[in-house]
Amino acid sequence: MQLSAIFITLARFTQKELIMDIQAIKALLLENFPGAHIEAETEGSHLNLVIVSDAFSGLSRVKKQQKVLAVLNEKISSGEVHAVNMKTLTPDQWQG
Predict the structure, then answer these.
(1) Where does 2-95 sit in CATH, by number?
(2) Any idea where the domains of the chain sit in the sequence?
(3) Which of 1, 31, 40, 70 has the fewest CB atoms within 10 Å, i.e. is most exposed?
């Protein structure tokens, strides 16, 4: 019985930690893209993002993604984030 309790506790801890990681990732992105609208969710070590920011105005899709990946580089290098799926939009693109 005690072994089951340990597994349940670990599962709760892991889920709680994932929630904190999302908040840390959102905070990191907001530091680098002030005023941006950011939606983030995880599926294991995979990160799904929608970022709407004026910082993307005039940039190609690749340049927008490079800006985001530069911010997340440490988390990717550490293995905390394994894969990133992102939509990077300007406010006009988001509204359109």
Answers:
(1) 3.30.300.90
(2) 2-95
(3) 1
Pairwise CA distance, residues 86 & 68, whole Å: 9
pTM over 0.90: no
The secondary structure of 11-80 as a DSSP string is HHHHHHHHHHHHHHHHHHHHHHSTT-EEEEEEETTEEEEEEE-GGGTT--HHHHHHHHHHHHHHHHHTTS
Beta bridge partners of 85: 48
How does DSSP classify residue 92?
Answer: H
Answer yes or no: are the C-beta atoms of 55 and 67 closer than 8 Å.
Answer: yes
